[in-house]
Design a protein that fits this description.
Immunoglobulin-like, elongated, TIM Barrel, alpha/beta, about 20% helix, six-stranded antiparallel sheet, 3 domains
């Protein structure tokens, strides 16, 4: 090892930071009086050297020192406290966890220095009201052989699917954890989570999702193609997605014991270093007020299940750019109940079609990563999680699902026809609801997890998307694409504020109005399972009217159809029960008949 020189370092940033040619600053939180320091591993000579913090700075509980004449590319490191070896929770590169599904023998940190050329990369800055979010797991998205990509299960695999995402109409991807988690779990052998543990001789269970304490500053090495550094592969992916107008939102799960200051530093680092557009935060003890008031994150999307808005915004202040958004299961369960014809759901549904929060966005969905897929929602009444090895005790018990008359896969034509209709009904409600729609990867072509609503430990065909279903269930894909195009093509669906439901343009029609068997009236009593909506496109600058008739009753219903201004006439845009056009009933007071458990959309343009 070359003759290194040790001098006082700086307490921030924490971790190992290149501060000049052949100079590295090490800073770590160590609240101990025991002998401690840095272990330097020479990759060329296969030797190691311990460098003590005894002659370095100590600022509070932070130990820091600068080591000069140190080749960052040649060395890896860990920390030590007497005989215990400690991994760096601020490590930007993780060594030893490159191969998916293999228990690491030893974890080390690499010394990170950025030389990446971002060229003219720019965050798309898409408003919540204009977004269509696509939730995916980087490995499962392209791991199946049917994905037909060169680097399956990697960041490059996502890049290869960009043309597909654009064709579908997606402009944002939400990635399940891509930070460097150890997917094979073994019994804890030390109180310090970052202590290097011997894993030999223990049974390990895979954590496919990655919602666990991890090395949060480093992209997951196993998601990078062979021979490519994880940070480079991830940045390449982000840059290509941005070049195609697609934002990147990362999921982060933080256990309760995670320090709030640490969480704050993680988010700022990924925003600056990796140009990500936002974060979906999960955990019970998140510094949401701090994050929500941080000027550096003002243009970064922050998604969580709640926000203390009174601590973030003054009472009468409305942000010029909404960067906060809530995401809960409320919409999902209410719409699932509506789909299976439960009582008393129409009023709830109409609120979702009309309103958006005043000071933040809201993400809604009918399926999600930890629930039934859309296909399983209409195929199973109960969860079937036996493959997880927990005697079907894991996962939520109540899914608000309906199997359409038969549990699981079937060849019965009548059941399959009803399931297809229900899937299309769900797609319609999800895409046309007022807030920001999220769809789960594979739902657009009927992906199934065989009734498993909690496949957290499944790294198999259960969680890998089978892309051959795209041709088998092409009608689902075509309908999803049609609905996304409808939302993207007509600004009336994407207005940033709640509908006012009055004629404030004096054009003869409100922006949104509700109807039923009678014009301008809607039945919201407990027994109602049907409603209709008229969108006047003029409020969004569109020369069109859109009429959406929703009948989730088990019997057909007639809907009165509003009269149109001169020069307009109604045409069938889409039906979830059939392909052919629907005919108007009557001339003076036109109406349409909508079959049981189906939705009809009418479009009128000059």
């Amino acid at each position: 090892m070359e003759d290194i020189k040790i001098s006082y370092g700086k307490p921030y940033p924490l971790g190992a930071t290149c501060v000049g040619p052949m100079q590295v600053n090490f800073a770590v939180v160590m609240s101990t009086d025991k002998q401690c320091g840095v272990i330097l591993y020479d990759k060329i000579n296969k030797t190691q050297r311990r460098v003590s913090f005894c002659c370095a700075n100590k600022v509070g509980n932070i130990r820091c020192m600068k080591i000069s004449n140190l080749d960052a590319d040649r060395y890896e490191y860990n920390y030590y406290i007497e005989d215990a070896i400690i991994n760096d929770p601020y490590a930007k590169i993780i060594i030893g966890n490159e191969k998916w599904g293999k228990i690491p023998e030893e974890i080390k940190a690499g010394i990170y220095h950025d030389e990446y050329d971002w060229a003219k990369d720019k965050n798309p800055m898409i408003a919540y009201n204009d977004m269509i979010i696509y939730l995916l797991h980087v490995r499962g998205f392209t791991k199946h052989k049917s994905s037909d990509v060169k680097c399956p299960g990697t960041f490059d695999g996502v890049v290869e699917k960009i043309p597909y995402l654009k064709e579908l109409g997606i402009n944002a991807v939400e990635l399940m954890p891509v930070y460097n988690f150890i997917e094979l779990e073994a019994p804890k052998q030390a109180e310090n989570e970052f202590a290097v543990k011997p894993f030999e001789g223990v049974d390990a269970k895979i954590n496919y999702w990655g919602y666990k304490e991890s090395f949060y500053f480093a992209p997951k090495s196993a998601f990078a193609p062979k021979g490519v550094k994880a940070d480079v592969a991830f940045k390449d992916m982000v840059k290509e997605l941005h070049n195609n107008g697609i934002e990147v939102i990362l999921q982060f799960f933080f256990p309760d014991k995670t320090k709030q200051g640490y969480i704050f530093e993680v988010l700022k680092y990924w925003m600056q270093e990796y140009h990500v557009d936002g974060f979906h935060l999960m955990g019970n003890k998140l510094p949401l007020a701090l994050i929500g008031t941080e000027p550096m994150l003002a243009n970064t999307k922050i998604i969580c299940d709640h926000f203390p808005l009174d601590e973030i915004y003054e009472y009468n202040v409305k942000p010029s750019y909404k960067n906060l958004a809530i995401s809960t299961d409320e919409f999902m369960y209410d719409m699932r109940r509506l789909l299976k014809s439960d009582e008393g759901m129409v009023g709830r549904a109409l609120e979702y079609m009309k309103n958006v929060p005043d000071k933040m966005g809201e993400i809604h969905y009918i399926s999600h990563g930890n629930t039934f897929t859309l296909m399983d929602l209409v195929s199973y009444d109960r969860k079937h999680n036996d493959a997880n090895g927990e005697n079907n005790r894991d996962g939520v018990i109540y899914n608000a699902s309906w199997n359409c008359g038969y549990e699981g896969a079937t060849s019965r034509a009548s059941v399959k026809k009803l399931r297809l209709r229900q899937i299309k009904n769900a797609i319609t409600l999800n895409i046309l609801a007022k807030t920001t729609p999220l769809i789960v990867a594979g739902d657009e072509f009927g992906n199934s997890q065989n009734g498993n609503n909690n496949p957290y430990c499944q790294d198999s065909s259960i969680t890998w998307l089978n892309w051959s279903l795209l041709s088998k269930n092409r009608d689902i894909y075509d309908y999803m694409q049609q609905m996304i195009a409808l939302r993207n093509n007509y600004k009336i669906f994407r207005m940033k504020d709640s509908y006012k439901m009055n004629d404030y343009l004096s054009c003869g029609y409100p922006d949104l109005s509700y109807h039923s068997s009678e014009l301008w009236k809607v039945e919201t009593d407990v027994l109602s399972r049907q409603f209709a909506m008229l969108y006047c496109g003029e409020y969004g600058g569109d020369d069109a009217f859109i009429f959406v008739a929703v009948n989730l009753h088990w019997t057909s219903h007639e809907f009165a159809v509003p009269q149109l201004p001169k020069g307009y006439s109604w045409e069938t845009f889409a039906r979830t029960d059939a392909q052919d056009s629907i005919k108007l009933i009557g001339d003076e007071h036109p109406a349409i008949e909508v079959k049981e458990r189906s939705i009809t959309i009418m479009l009128a343009k000059k």
